[in-house]
């Protein structure tokens, strides 16, 4: 079977790479921008909140080893699905949580997973993560790629900015 692509936005893309990059069946994880109206945006343009883009990761995966529903499960554990305008210390529309789907099958899986999460009682507030059709994805500048490997100390500081405590509260039960 051919490889597929999944695109997830959930705060700073630096923190979204490692959880997927370390899983069997993942070929690559690329940090980038999607969901906006400016072609080939730069990081500076995206953080200026004028392009409509969100930071995201594009994941190339082998669905026979890592099915899409398992990727969605990993995604939920990396985000606060109740916060529509940012994630943890990352604030603004460019950090909004979105699952970008590229097929009716991905949409059905994402919507079913979101409904199950909402019904789980794990969160007091409503699940606000959006599920949208895939839009053009623009890879981020090279210095943003594999950030957790290039600057592990800074990555750990970013990761501990609320995400770790959130995961422990909602997922480590």
UniProtKB/TrEMBL annotation:
GO molecular function: peptide-methionine (S)-S-oxide reductase activity
Residue ranges of domain Peptide methionine sulphoxide reductase MsrA in the record: 5-155
Oxidoreductase as UniProt keyword: yes
Keyword Oxidoreductase attached: yes
Family matches, as InterPro entries: Met_Sox_Rdtase_MsrA_dom (IPR002569), Met_Sox_Rdtase_MsrA_sf (IPR036509)
Catalyzed reaction equations: L-methionyl-[protein] + [thioredoxin]-disulfide + H2O = L-methionyl-(S)-S-oxide-[protein] + [thioredoxin]-dithiol; [thioredoxin]-disulfide + L-methionine + H2O = L-methionine (S)-S-oxide + [thioredoxin]-dithiol
Keywords per UniProt: Oxidoreductase
Source domain of life: Bacteria
Active-site residues, as the UniProt record annotates them: 12
EC number(s) from the headed UniProt entry: 1.8.4.11
Database matches in SUPFAM superfamilies: Peptide methionine sulfoxide reductase (SSF55068)
The family this protein is said to belong to: Belongs to the MsrA Met sulfoxide reductase family.
PANTHER family registered for this protein in UniProt: PEPTIDE METHIONINE SULFOXIDE REDUCTASE, PEPTIDE METHIONINE SULFOXIDE REDUCTASE MSRA 2
Protein's job: Has an important function as a repair enzyme for proteins that have been inactivated by oxidation. Catalyzes the reversible oxidation-reduction of methionine sulfoxide in proteins to methionine.
Protein's UniProt name: Peptide methionine sulfoxide reductase MsrA
Gene from which the chain derives: msrA
